[in-house]
Structures are given as C-alpha cells and as structure tokens.
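new request in #modeling-help
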Amino acid sequence: MAKPSRDKMLELVYKRKRSIFHDSSPFLKMAWLFSIVMISVLFEHPIILFILFLSSFLVALVSKVFSDWAKVMKLVVFFVPFVIVFNMVVNANGETVLWQFPFRIPLFGILNITAEELLFSLTMCIRIAAILGAFTVLNLTTDPDDLLIALTKLRFPYRSVVVTSLSTKFVPVMLSDLKNIQDAQRSRGVDFSKGKIIERIKKYGAVFFPLLSKSLDRSVQIAEAMETRGFGRYEKRSFYKDTRISKSDIFLIFVSLLPLAISLYMVSQGIGAFKFYQRIDPLIKSSSEAFFILIILCLEAFLIPLLKIRGLMVYD
Amino acid sequence: MIEFNDFSFFYPDAKSPSLDNINVQISEGEFLVITGPSGGGKSTFLRSINGLIPNFYGGKISGEVIVHGKNASETPTNQMSELVGMVFQDPENQLISSRVEREIAFGMENLCFPESLMKKRIEEALDAVNISRLRNRITSELSGGQKQKVAIASALSMHPSILLLDEPTSELDPRSAEEVLNVIEKINDELGLTILLVEHRLERVIHHVDRMLLIDDGKLLYDGSPRKIKSAHIENWKVGLPPVTRLSLHFKDRLTNGLPLTVKEARLSLKDVLSNPGKNVTWSKKESSGKICLSMEKVYFSYDGEKDVLKNVSFNVYEGDMIALMGKNASGKTTLVKLMNGLVKQRKGKVLLFGKKISDYSLDDLIQKVGIVFQDPNLHLFNDTVEEEVAFVLRNLEMDQKTIDKKVSDILKRFKIYEYRNSYPHDLSGGQRQRVALASVLVSEPEVLILDEPTRGMDYYLKQELISFLREKSKTVIMITHDVETAAEFADRVVLLSEGNIISDGNKRDVLSKALLFSPQINRLVQPYAKNGIPDDTLTVEEILEVVG
C-alpha cells in the first residue's frame, strides 16, 4: 500500500461552518447517528442499508462537508476488492457460480466467485459506508466541545469524556510531529526509502521513539495545565454556553429515532430479515416489508426538509 | 503571601536536590522575576508553589511551602487552582478547548461557577488582556502570542491571587513577547496580583520587576531588588544580564548610582565614559566571498497550493557567510531553510546547491553539504546513548572508529555534555538535549550549517560557547534567530524576512543599526554619542569596550 503523503492525508477535524446541520443541537446529531448505527447493525437487507447510506449522503450534502465526506467514502471503495477476496477465500457458499478459479490452490481447494458472495460483500461494504459515513458527518459538523457537553449531560463521566475528546484533538498534532521527526532524521542521513526490511523497520523505530517521547511530553504538559486549572476539583462541573434543547430539536430527534423504533418492531415481527445463502432472497419478500422500508426511506428523506424549515425559522 | 521554609526537593531517584534549602518570603502584590541557568531549578521552584511539585511529579521533599496559610505540598493542585494560576512555556500544550471563550471558561467550569458569573468573568478577563476581538476565534488558528494571552486570560478568570508564569515568551518573536510582557506588567499594576515570572532573557523584564531571585543548582543565590545587584558578586552569575548592565559592570567604580538596567538609564550613568571615547575606530564590514554555495532564484513556495509562504525569493549564500535569518513567527524562515536541503520543493523558481540541483544529490552527499538542526531537539534524538547519537552521522558516512571516537569526544567536551555520554538522551534536561542535538549534526562538519533557533532556552554562557564554536569550526552558517543580541554577536550578514519576502539583506551593521525593532541594546545606547566619536554602527559590548578602552 502506498504511504499517503501528508497533504493527501485525511484531516477529519471539525471546521467551523454554518449549515442547517452544523447549527443543530449535538443531541440531535447523536440521535441521528445512533439510529443509523443501530439500524445498520439490526439488518442485513441491502435496500435498508442503502437507505441509511443515502441518509448520511444527504446530510453530508446539506451540511456542506461533502468533499471531506467523499474522501472517506473513497477509502471504503478502496476496501471493496479486499472484502470480496476475503469472502471468496473464507466463504464457500452460494450456488450461482459466476467465475471459477482455473486451478486448485493448496489448502483452499477450488475457489468460486458466486453471485451470492458478491452481493453479500457489496452489502457489507454499504453497511460499512453507512456507519462510517454517519460518524464522519458527526465529526465534521460538531464542535468537540459541544459533543463533550452533550455526552456529559447523558451522564457519561466528564473526566473520561474530556480525555477522549482531547485525544482526538491531538491526532493532527501528532501527524505533524511525525512529519517533523522524519524531516529531522532525513537531515541526519536516515533514508527511509533504502535498505532491507529489517533496516527499514529499524529506521521506523528511529521515528517511533522520538514520537513517543514527544507525545509523552505533550501529555504531561497538558495534564499539568489541566490540573492547574482545577480539573477534577469537584465531582461535577458547570457549563458555559450550555447546550439547550429547543422544541424543534426534540421533534427532530423524535423523527430521527422513529426509523429505529420501526426497525425494532420489524425485527420483532421477523420482517426485513435477509438471507444471502444458499440462494439470494428476493429483495422484497412481502408487501408489509415493502411498506416498512418505504416508511424508513421517507423518514430519513424527510429529515432534510425538516432541517431546512427549521433553519429558515431560526435565521429569520 | 508565599513562604518557603527550609524547602528542599529531590526528583524521584535523583541523588542531588533540585531545590536546596530554600527560604523566601513573598508578600502580596509583588512582581518577581526568577532567573538562572538552564536546568538550575527555576521551573521546579515555581511548581512547588501550586503543589505540582511534589503532587504531580513525586519525589522527596523536606521543609514546607505555605501559600495563604495552606501547605502547598499537601494540597492537591486542582484545589490550589482557586488561589494560584499558572501559564506555561509552550502555547501549544496548554489550551484545552477549541474556542477562545470556552477555553477561558474551562477552569471556571471545573470549579462549578454558575453561567452568569462565568459570562462576567470572561468579559473581564478578555478585557484585562485586551483580546476581546479574539473571543469567537478557534484556538488552533491563533498565533503563539495570542495563545499565550488566552492562557493568561484563562488563569485570570479564576481570580487567583498569585500568577505563576514559566517562561511564557520563550517561543515568541520579540514583538509578541513584548506584548505579552506588557500585559503581565499591567495585571500586576492594575489588579495587584502577585506575579512570579521565570525568564532568562533579563533585558526584557528586569526594569519592570520589584524583586529578582537567582536560582542556580537548586540554591537561591540572590534575592533582592535588581537595582541593588551592584553589591552582589554578579561576575560569577550564569545569567544573561542586559548588555547595557554587562557593559556598566566594567565601569562599576565610576558609577554613582546603582547599575543601569535599561538603555535610557545607561545613557545617563555612562555619560562620562561614552562622551570620551579613547580611540577613533571604524568597524570594517566583512564582505561575502565571491564563491556561491547556494543560490535561489525567484523561488515561490506554498504548502497548500493556494497561499504562497515564500514569494519571489532570490538569495545567494556565499562560502564563509555567517547569516542571521530573522523575522516574525510564520514569516517563512523555516520553510526557506527546508528548501535548502530538499525537505520541501519549490513551486516555482530555481534552487542550486554548489551549482547542482538538490534532487541530483544522493542523501549521503547532501548531508555532507547541508546540515540542519531543528528547533526542537526531541525530533533529532533516537539513539540509546548520547555518544551513539553523536556518532550516528559519522557511522552513516562510514568513517573509521578511531576518527569517530576522537571527533565525538571532542565535540561532547566542547558542549559540556561529555559527562553524560552514556546517558539516555531523553533523560537529560532541555538545554542539555539541545546541545546533544546540535552536536549530532555539527560533528559531521557540513559545508553549510543551518540552525533553527538554536539559542532558545540557552543561558548566556552556553550561547557564548555556541557562537565561538560556530565561528571557529564552521564554514558557512545560517542561523534562524529571534534574539537580536545573538545575531549581533554571531553574524556578519543579516537577512530579514517578512510575510514570505526578503525585506532586508546586508551586512549586520547596516541592517541592525538604527532599526526600530531589530536594534541591539548597545546600538541604541550609542546613538546620542555618535557625535563624540563612537561609531553609530557599534553593536556589542565587546566592541564598545574596544572603543572606550
């Protein structure tokens, strides 16, 4: 795999912008994310998973973070062949053989690509894309500090929440440290592109130790700074610029959680289960399934105009 | 009220104390500067006031520190935070939130202040430090000086009665440093906070403070007004006294009052000396040799493809040049030197090293031509011992063991780190690490040596040592520095960079004399005496001594 250079590297950090989704309450964003993640765990149905993916696509679009979001999705596309090959090797199910490996491979026997395997792999990739996409949207549109307050309100212990949010904040800092260390060492004649594997591993070790010590120094300094500002003084803490939930937020949270409720009902009724092997189920098995899927689609799609309407109300 | 009673402190596993039997009383509202050589115990002293020493670091103490009736060593630091605020050296590693307002609120949130009170306090703190216009900014986008001001505001918002500052300006360019120091002075003046400031570049603060503590080797060597240092044995102090003060020491007997601490004071008290120069001298201006080492022609550079960090830079380095490269933070200095050894590539223009393109060099050849030492020594160090660290480049160049041993031990002795040759580099103090990093590059004697702020955090004597080593041993040196005095002593040629453009390039006497921001103290001192025959491009103490005898 090619090593991504720094300028191509993903920087999935929050950038301050205004959009109907950026301006929403962190609780709404978390409810939306929670609902998407839970539903995609509940179902293996390709259409439902695709709807979830669509939802994260639409939200990314309206919150003006599409180009960053698309970078992450490209990564998923990059994984598709791996998932297919992996499935081909470990999975010998499915009866519709599309292509057969021309010779026997020791240990694995004859490998087939079947239509069932292919669809299963693709569906799993859509699932990954839906979950990852939703997380990406949340990351790109939410100030870590807002998230921190929201999580603390949900009774997560604030000390752990602060530490977690800090550690995400320092990922880009560490990447730039890494670049600086490599620069410094290259200037002393460490050539990262030459040598045998063992030698190269040693060279990367030479990068690793300074990085470790630098990060340790950093964490000690931050800990000192937090300590001197009273962090952990009391069990509770107060909040400046508290996140308040408006009525419209509550309504939207309800809308974004509704699909999850419907999904749970579907699972309890055995609707929406999908089997890939030995033969692919028909995409729509019953009219009730079609009905529920349509409702989920509508709800996910409705979220956008609702956000828009609310946005208009707020701005006016 | 702060009281140290026979206080000593040993870091875990340390054999000698980092603070040795300290006795001090500090009253409310005092403004103190704490100074001393690198690794002498200044920071440790500061940290024992809010209990970071020993609560955070462990180690052994004896004696006690009483702060407003509380025993600081026995009170958790987060509890002391209601009484003592602290601002640290590195602006990067002390801001926790992503927005300025929230950053200031962070401490108050921890102490469970109600929202209405926080609002009021944030307003006050922003005003006190004069950064109201930054209130909605994202902290990571602020400049170093702005970050330090935010850190100060954050500490102030908690209404501490004591403010500790651990070298808050050492990462800043002179202009931002000046602004931060002005803010600190104002806080002391107007709010009456007790302020303890650790600083080793004394010329910036010494005239503002009420009291000076000198800590060396864990001992308190001086405690009193900086106005009274005349009677102390300051000849042995390992501190960088302001150049005018250092000059005045030579005429101690002829001074009627105390030692002058500022240029203005020195003009008056050295009037006799300066108006009768013994000799008539003119300083020669060393010209660059004709041999070009490195040439840049119309170079543009950009990190993101949008904003140019360097714009149309044309610039030659000649063999034997001693260049000081100066300019504000983020003016493109580091980028310029990175171009010189191919760490980054120009967007447009030509860079030639000894007549050849940099990409045509093999890495081994390149490091013999250009050596570069970065600001942060931690980036360089990755071997198990200091000795190996320094020998690393030489081994890479396949020298024989005997030569390596000799070169390594020579340079280690020179930089006074020979005794640590078998230590793990990361166990050393900041100043020592810096010297190891320097030695590890200098040892291969590259044709062109580039140093990115090598004197940051170095005390006066180490600076002198470095300068004399460079002048003696190196052929061509480019030193990035914020420190005007270092530039005046070290360089022949000074290049000023501003927003990606070279705005001034020439002999140091032309660039540094009579410049508004970049004149060394001595140069400002002699201006009124130019009519008496002191050359108006005199820059250093040594030069002026030569003139007045």
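bot summary: Chain B touches chain A through 68 residues (CB under 8 Å).
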